[in-house]
Every structure is written in C-alpha cells, then in structure tokens.
C-alpha cells in the first residue's frame, strides 16, 4: 500500500479543511513568491516573461502546460539551478540558491539515478548529501520502502522496472522530509494505478505542511491540486484554484479552460501584429460563452511583449536589477515563513541536524567533509560494481610500464653485421699482430646487454666480395658491414706509433663501415659499440698506444651512470604520462556520464557545492592512483633496477600532482563535451600529445623552437623532467627541511667552491 496509516482519507479533504489541519496558515504565507520574473537560457532573449506566482505553504501547486512551455525552466529558477535575468523571487523566505537544498526535495523529469547503485546505496548517498545521520537515513529508507512499495533495498537500479525507478526517484526527493517538494512530471509514463498512488501520497504530505509544486502534462489530474497555473510559451496565462478558474471562464473542464486561454492569447498576438507593436500590459477581453450564453468580463494579466523589454527597463529600472549583488543578498520580500513554521505539526527546524564546529567554520562555506566522503564512497561503490574493470584499471599501468621496461631494458643486440677482414697483419721478430682479427674478436664478444651487440655472420654466410655485401645490406639481410683493408695492421701501427701524417697510410688505417642508416637508434648503438671496442683493443695491444691517443675524450658521470641506459630516460616520464592520462580519462568519462544521467543537477540541488563534488572525484581517483603506483614503482625500481637516487616521497608527490592536473583537465573536458565518445577522443588525443612531445620519448632539446614552446606549456613535460631528475640525482633532499635545505646547500657550495651550484 502506498498510503501511510495516518493519511487515510486525507485525499478527500478540501483545501479549507487541509488548511485547518495545518494550523494557522496566514494567507500571506507563501513558500514561493515570484514577481515580474524574466529568465531562461539566453540572457538576451529571455524565454520566461513576466512570471508572477504565489505558492502557498501546505498547498499543491500544479504547473500545467504543453511541452516546451517553460515549466522545467521555472522549476530550475526556483531551485537555484538557473539565475533569473530580472524580477523578484523568494523561495522559503530566501533568494533561491542551491544552498537551500536541504529544505527542498526535487524529483527531476528524468530519473537521474546511478544505474550501478542499489536502491539502498542510492538513498544512503542522497541522505548523506542532505546532511542526515546514518540511523535517520535507515529509518527513512524503511518508512519510504513501505509507503512507496519499493523493492528490497539491495536491488540494483538498473534491474528495476520503469515504475519502480520512478518511485525510487520519488523516495530520494522525499528522503529528508523537505518543506518544499518539487516534482517535475512525476506521473509521466506511469500507469494510472501508480499515478493515483503518487497523488494520494502527495495529498497526504500537504497535511504535514509540505508544499508541493508539480508539473504535469495530464491536465485533468491537476484538478486535485489546490492551485493551478497555466503556462504557455514562457508566459503564465492565469493561475488560481482549479475550480475557481473553471468557474471564472465558465468551462466544465480544466482542459477546455486551458484551450480557451491559449486561443485568447493567440488572438491577442494577432491583434498586436495587425494594429501596432505597442506595449500591452493588460488586455481586456470579453468572453461570450456559447454554451450558456453568459457574458463574463475577465481580466487576463499578460506580460510585456519581449520586444519591449528594453523599453520597460528604461521605464522602471528597479524592476530589472535583480542580478545586482545587493539584491541577491537582500531579497525584497521579508521572510515570515521561518517563524511561522513553528506552528506546524512538522517542525523542520528541530529535524535539521546541528552543525558541527567545522561546518560552522570558514572553510565549510566552500566544502563539507561528509559530502565529499559521500561522493567518494558512491564512486567507489560504482567502481566495485565492475571488479574486472577495477582490477584492470589498477594493473594496466603496471603492465604498460613492465612491457616498456622490458622493451627499453637494454641497448639493441644481435645486430646482423659482417666483418670483411682483408688485413694481412704484421710479422716482425718483435711483433706478430693482426689488428683486423683483434677487432673481429673484440666485436664478437662486446656487449652491454644480455648478449653480444653484433651477430657476426662471418661463420654462417660467406660473402666473397664487397659487391655481395653491398647487395646483402640493400636486401635487408645485413644491417651493415665493415671493410678492414689489407695493410690495416701495418698502417695503424705506423700511423699511431710513429705519428705518420702520410695520406695513403692514414687511408689504409681506416676501416670503412657501411650501414643501413634508416634505423637511427641501431646506428647509434653500432657507433657506440665500435668506438668502445677500438678503445678496448688499443689498451690491450700494449704497443705504446694509449687510449687517450686513440679517442681523446673521457666521459665522466655527474648524474646517472657512466653507461647510460634508455630506460632511465624514458621510464620516469612514462610513469608521469600514465598518471596524467588515466586521471584525465577517468574523470572526463565520469563527469560526462553524470551529466548525461542528469545526476549532477540533482546532486547540486541537495546543497552540495562544486568543490564537494570535485574533491569527491579527486579523492576516489587518488585512491586508484595509489593502488596503481603501488604496483608500478616496485616493477620499475626492483624489477628493472631503475634506482630512485633522490627522495622517493618527492617522486610520489610528483605523480600525485600530475594526476590532480589530469583530473582538472578531465573535469574541463567533462564539462565542455556532451558525450562519452567525445570525452574518449579528447583523452586519447591528450595522451598521444603528451607521450610524443613531453620529452619522454625524445629530448625536448631536439624540438624546433615553436614546438618546444608548446611542449614546455604541457604539465607532463615539467613533471617528466622532475621525475627524471629525482630518479637520477644523487643529491637527496629531506622533505621536512625541504627547499630550505636545498638553498642552504646551494649557498654553502657557491661560497666555498665559487662554481658549484645545485639547482633544484
Ligand atoms: N539547457 C537548455 N539550453 C537551452 N535551451 C533550453 C535548455 N533546456 C530547455 N531549453 C529550452 O527552453 C524552453 C522551455 O523548456 P522547458 O524544459 O522549460 O519546457 P517544459 O515545459 O518543461 O517542457 P516538457 O514538458 O516537454 O518537459 C524550450 O524551448 C527548450 O528548448
């Protein structure tokens, strides 16, 4: 049964009887008062024109009108979701803002429910947003489940029937026993039995002093309301008790009354078109009732023509300055309703939870911890609904980094290379030497990775001429080959021991290397290997040739290791790009989804601030991030030996900050786009942009100036540089002493050595 026990029979009560039950309701006591209101989505062309409305406390006020009449727009202004362009409005004694959300219940036209939550989780979430304590929420869930005949609370919203979903949405609006209940077409698409149940329930609520504003397409159901307001094309045609209106225009049904008012309105427009475009504020019209022959003189209050809005503003500027901050803070209507609520048998002031010290404090004006926690908990519950997705979400960054670490772990090896050695060597009583063979042997075993860099094909395939080798490189069988000439040993010894400058001799001491230069990274590795092998041979030969003479450069590491690895360059950056991109992707998709479901507006109506929602998103995403980092860092540091030489806490902080930046980007994308697909495309674009130009895969120094400017404006570029510095710097910074410590060291070094500087 829908009706609660004390509500039986209340649906049969008339307005006066209900008013009596409520106690002393003064006629001047209105929960909603609107005068001369202009509003809509276009500031220059307001859709709502000259709206005047009086909604009495404890009454049912029905807004009637065809589709796109402006009913929802009026409700949004009352809820504080939309600012009026001009005019006066007072809701529950105050200028409407979403901060009044705890006193207002709102059931949007769309269901606006998270499909992945259960009924219980949904009601608990909204209860927390409305400042209720857990025990009270549970009590109310029990009462509402019985009253509204809801399925068990563990049922998922997505598994409910259309009617059950609508009743759940209704329960959310009713959960905190609001003073003003705003229902936007609660009966649309609902079967007649459920429609009757909803009306019975709301009639019962008015007995407790709850004011109901309801919009509907079904004109005849509004006959049960206390007041009805006909809306069309953003204007109010007339308002009043339904039976009074029918009597006033002498029609037997509300439908006929509404049609008549619409006809009169259209006729007035025609008259304006043909006669003049002058301002018409009040139109007197005569209605000759054809059915009974009565003649009634009716006054239809019609607002100013929208074209004359500017003219009106000039005439009466005070009427249009509602957007001034002064007026927003001090509404023109003096609130009486607060005190008068005391007379009700439904005392909302006592029901309101007392504010904690924190809530009274300055910061609480911006955010409320319980609301942040509720938002975060709700998001975690949704994530837990998809365990596989959650699992993948946590381990995928780890897998990407693991694959990347494996791929970048070593320099290239097993490069197909051939040594065409024609060196005849030198044979003297003192020395027997073939430098060509020495080079071949050195290159064969030279390695910086798990295997020798060169896969020397000399043993497998025999190439008999330089022409054959040239063709082999062109056909892709070899990456390259080296030609060591006949007198290489002799020429080399002559050149280096006797410092000969003979041109022919120098030419003979040079080994020509032919390479497929299309693969730049491999070429760099080959060059490095050849260079190192030659240095090694020279040191070994003990022919009086020192390493320095052969290669007069000696590289020493200030930061990093003497043999640099690509993984130390790419992995820190990859971690930051992943942290940024995942946060961006998850946040943007989440926000767009909430927008599409319509839950964002519903959340705001509960008085939840934007900061509460944003901090809820950030805290949930940070939780996911920490789980991701918990897998990712051990893989990089322990699995692949990329040591963090600097302060690890700073490294984590860097990842957290870049993730928060990603979330901010995600919020921006989420608010700008209207579809999940768009959010996905934007997120992917950002991911690839960051991956390619943030200096992670190739140094920023290689970019042209214009691209470097773009790159330097990307947050991931700075984060990548910082993470690489932290991981390779031997300089350790104590987080507690922080920058002070760094400055002190810097000053000390500059003073003592006059040249060393540590720039952090
Ligand atoms: N977000 C929006 N941005 C711009 N215009 C809008 C927006 N929402 C509604 N409108 C326009 O405002 C006008 C009034 O719409 P509103 O939703 O108030 O009508 P309604 O009477 O509630 O209709 P329905 O009964 O079909 O829900 C329509 O012309 C609509 O196109």
What general form does the structure show?
Answer: elongated
Write out the strand line-up for the largest beta sheet, numbering strands in chain order.
5-6-7-3-8-9
The helix/strand class is alpha/beta
Could you describe the largest sheet, including whether it forms a barrel? 6 strands, mixed
What does the radius of gyration come to?
A: 40 Å
Number of strands: 17
Summed over residues and divided by their number, the pLDDT gives a mean of: 76
Give the % helix: 40-55%
Ligands in the model, by name, code or SMILES, are: adenosine-5'-triphosphate
The total count of helices amounts to 29
Low-confidence stretches: 1-28, 272-346, 545-549, 730-760
Main location: membrane
Subcellular location: Membrane
Protein name: ABC transporter domain-containing protein
Transmembrane segments: 382-404, 569-592, 648-673, 679-698
